Amino acid sequence: MVRFRVITVFPRIFDSYVNESLFKRAKKEKIVSVDTYDLRDFTNDRHRKVDDRPFGGGPGMVLQIQPVYDAVKFIKSKVKSKKLKVRTILFSTRGKKLDAKMAKRLSKYDELILICGRYEGVDERVADHIADEEVSVGDYILSGGEIPALAFMESVSRFVPGFLGKEESLEEVNGSFPTYSRPEVFYPFRSFHSPSSSRAPRGISKKSSVWSVPKILLSGDHKKIAEWRKAQKRD
Q: d(Cα 20, Cα 18) in Å, to the nearest integer?
């Protein structure tokens, strides 16, 4: 089992996502575990403050090192065995970009502690002395680390045996190719408008009003279907 331990100032953000679909089943079957920790529970400030102005001036507020340090220390004290592999991740725009190779590597850990930043960032001493590595989910800016943490947890969990049910479901294994389902022939003009309407939906012309599944997929020839899918794969 991989246990995700998430440190955040907004723990309720994770409730709905990890209690639905694949995560819900995986948690029930003890394939993965998700625990959230409110950073405000670890501050020494009587007003539960976890941020302060940046040294040197500048806009916004910075998450302080003290509550992050105490949160990570507390979580590590809960790890039952020294034999368990633990990794602490800080989400940062300066981190290494998340990809399938990284997700597969980190899926081998028993405990993943995820630090979600907020506001203008996190005291740099967290990256220097507490986190084992910094991770970015893309070349764009978000308001905090919660959405990156969700993307990270799902990408890592997909490599945990049993999470998807079948390894063949891994797009990382099979590649990405076009897929289709019923009906074999779709009539968008009929679908979106009543028979009495003479106007086609915006962006859809009557000339392209029949969308069909490629005939090869209806042939029943699995060898040719496999060859077609291989030819259609995208990296």
A: 6
pLDDT along the chain (235 residues), means of 10: 97 94 95 97 94 90 96 94 95 95 97 93 95 96 95 96 72 71 81 54 63 91 90 76
Phi then psi dihedrals of residue 148, to 5 deg: -55, -40
> Residue 103 is encoded by which pair of tokens?
């997700």
Helix (H, G, I), strand (E, B) or coil at 113: strand
Kindly report the pTM of this predicted structure.
0.83
CA distance 36 to 128: 23
Containing 186, the helix (H) or strand (E) segment is strand 185-186
Q: What are phi and psi of 51, to 5 degrees?
A: -135, 165
Enumerate domains of the chain plus CATH numbers. 2-170 (3.40.1280.10), 175-232 (no CATH)
Strands 111-115 and 86-97 turn out to be parallel
